[in-house]
């Protein structure tokens, strides 16, 4: 039986933790295309986009295992390596920030909230997009799956909360996948699902977020009543 996670009080919020792919950046098509190209390169069955989108949010080794659980671990590792070659070097599929992303982060930062990233991306991948978008300045800390445990394990959220000296009730997780929302629930952190990413409304609703929003403008409106937790 699932125990519902309490909703955050508007006067208690301190730390907002964001997923990256599918939440702040529209990168789903690049991820799908890179995986499919890696499958072709290795003469593996080319899975449909919906199968690949279902594993977005996991760490790369966990995603490879979920896509092809029958494969030897060495082949799964090779799939992950070839995927990264396409993602970083060979695949021209464009990626962009979702509309409203920088405005949202800038507004929250000006209001004094602590912001962080909790992502299944590699450290290389996250550092590159933080630099190319200029958004790195908004985040006091970030966590990648390769540095901790993959979602939906709550360890990366607990590490970020420890750095911010914040309790679960003072925090909010924002993500576009069930892995994000389940991770938050395991950490007893309220979560908001954004439906413009990899997993749809129905899948996100099953993970019992405190709210579902269609885009980052709607998220900004939902967060308007929140105030920084007094020190």
Task: Explain what you see.
This protein is an alpha/beta fold. It has 2 domains: 140 residues, 3-Layer(aba) Sandwich (Rossmann fold); 63 residues, DNA polymerase, domain 1. It contains 10 helices and 8 strands. A 6-stranded parallel beta sheet has the order 5-4-1-6-7-8, with helices on both faces. A two-stranded antiparallel sheet has the order 2-3. Helix 1 crosses helix 4 and helix 3 crosses helix 4. The relative contact order is 0.20. The model has no long low-confidence stretch (mean pLDDT 94).
Would you spell out the secondary-structure blueprint of this structure?
Elements: E1 15-18, E2 25-26, H1 28-41, H2 49-53, H3 60-67, H4 73-90, E3 96-97, H5 101-110, E4 114-119, H6 123-133, E5 141-144, H7 155-164, E6 171-175, H8 178-186, E7 191-194, H9 201-205, E8 211-213, H10 216-223
Parallel strand pairs: 1-4, 1-6, 4-5, 6-7, 7-8
Antiparallel strand pairs: 2-3
List keywords for this structure.
alpha/beta; 231 residues; globular; Rossmann fold; 2 domains; 13% strand; single chain; DNA polymerase, domain 1; two-stranded antiparallel ribbon
Summarize the structure.
With 231 residues, the protein is of the alpha/beta class. 42% of the residues lie in helices and 13% in strands.
By CATH, the architecture of the largest domain is named 3-Layer(aba) Sandwich
Query: What is the makeup of the main sheet?
Result: 6 strands, parallel
**What is the overall pLDDT average?**
94
Q: Oligomeric state of the chains?
A: single chain
- Strand arrangement, largest sheet? 5-4-1-6-7-8
Helix content: 40-55%
Ranges with pLDDT <50 over ≥5 residues? none
Secondary-structure element string: EEHHHHEHEHEHEHEHEH
Task: Tally the helices.
Answer: 10
Q: Give the domain tally.
A: 2
| N-end to C-end Cα span | 35 Å
Give the percentage of residues in beta strands.
Answer: 5-15%
| Shape, principal axes of CA atoms | globular
Indicate the structural class: alpha/beta
- What is the third-level CATH name, the topology of the largest domain? Rossmann fold
Gyration radius, rounded: 17 Å
Top CATH class of the largest domain: Alpha Beta
CATH superfamily of the largest domain: HAD superfamily/HAD-like
Number of strands: 8
